[in-house]
Amino acid sequence: xxxxxxxxxxxxxxxxxxxxxxxxxxxxxxxxxxxxxxxxxxxxxxxxxxxxxxxxxxxxxxxxxxxxxxxxxxxxxxxxxxxxxxxxxxxxxxxxxxxxxxxxxxxxxxxxxxxxxxxxxxxxxxxxxxxxxxxxxxxxxxxxxxxxxxxxxxxxxxxxxxxxxxxxxxxxxxxxxxxxxxxxxxxxxxxxxxxxxxxxxxxxxxxxxxxxxxxxxxxxxxxxxxxxxxxxxxxxxxxxxxxxxxxxxxxxxxxxxxxxxxxxxxxxxxxxxxxxxxxxxxxxxxxxxxxxxxxxxxxxxxxxxxxxxxxxxxxxxxxxxxxxxxxxxxxxxxxxxxxxxxxxxxxxxxxxxxxxxxxxxxxxxxxxxxxxxxxxxxxxxxxxxxxxxxxxxxxxxxxxxxxxxxxxxxxxxxxxxxxxxxxxxxxxxxxxxxxxxxxxxxxxxxxxxxxxxxxxxxxxxxxxxxxxxxxxxxxxxxxxxxxxxxxxxxxxxxxxxxxxxxxxxxxxxxxxxxxxxx
Length: 518
Ligand code: XMP
Hints:
Elements (H helix, E strand, L loop, with lengths): L3 E6 L5 H10 L3 E6 L4 H5 L5 E4 L16 H5 L4 E4 L1 H9 L3 E3 L5 E9 L11 E7 L2 E4 L5 E6 L4 E6 L4 E4 L11 H12 L8 H16 L4 E5 L3 H14 L3 E7 L7 H12 L4 E5 L1 H8 L5 H22 L5 E3 L4 H4 L29 E3 L7 H11 L3 H4 L19 H20 L16 E15 L2 E14 L7 E2 L4 H14 L3 E6 L13
The structure holds xanthosine-5'-monophosphate.
The site of xanthosine-5'-monophosphate has 14 residues, from loops.
């Protein structure tokens, strides 16, 4: 069993970041809601707890509190921001509101040599209104901020630590060092959460789950479904049948890329269904975005059902669900988000189908999924692919979907993304590079405009280029691209793609726009 750190979530926007930082130290970490059943958390045998920040105030009615089992476990605990306040209250200290609020960067000075904080003045990220007024018995101050507030405290004999600032965010200069000290030195965790270990553990788990039963998987070429499928293949080999549905709405070279990844690189059997005609027929005359999405999603399920029947309706289905999809969260005051788009992907297969799910990536973040994919032998081009929506080019082809318009879009998209890849802006990030694009593509607009080409009047459609940078795809900024690159892409598209005489660049962030155009 690998060593684990449990992160108790009090509702901070940074909770997942804490988990990622711990994983970057190659130590397994798991987020649980602060009010999860004690027995469930204790059974994880954590080597230490981290208490996240959160939006509440410890004296609010029904405010989250530190459950008793955490302090009873006799393992190290690190409270961050609200976690510091919850720890203070649980141990009989005092937290007060109001007074000086600290938000943003602050300088701290370490006042007491200790095992957690590097001993020098440093910049940290603060975000709090409440503060610790009286520390619990046995605690000493570790550091104070330039505003004169308590920035950290500890009772090192009991291995209890608390920080008023956020070591997990990049703005905290030495935050990674602090987490390293806590996780590896104070908790004594072994750095055993490595790709090799993760794969071995997953393989064992899959074998235990499916026994000698058959399993079915649908791949889209997306990173998650591909890595999940490759893992299951490694675990149960011939018991797995894998289907790849070619919707006719994929990007240039994508069908061949997926076939090559699975057949050549992994030596797997892959059944490709060419369903493009069925998709184009089903989509004929449809222009409304939600209607397109629904049709594509329903047809995908039908095709999948047909294929499952052909291979004898296996009882197990592989899904590429990843950790951020399943993280238990402590429910903030915000309501459920409004439906902006009906998402469809191979992870969204039929809820009423009688499958037991095999979800080998449930514990992993996206970057871990990619490392595992590489370790399993999937080609880098697939593993480092940018996200691509389940409905494919259909949601980038505004207006009616026809084979001709999709071909036009596909060609323009290949020119744009090809130039970006050649410029090193898309694909596997080079270490230390920050200008990497998160997503970039072309959209075809059903807008005709007048142009002139070789003295001839033209009246043709428009290509919109979209390139964004984002951390989480919930918000995104449009990317500032080199002018020469834009010029080259524009001239190549107009010259090479028949039916397009104008290229525009989308300079809208999300919100108010979304990343995709439909
Ligand atoms: P939006 O357009 O909502 O997109 O800003 C956010 C991210 O989600 C991707 N996207 C999808 N992914 N199925 C998917 O698997 C879908 O139906 C879908 N629609 C949008 C989009 O490409 C972006 O990365």
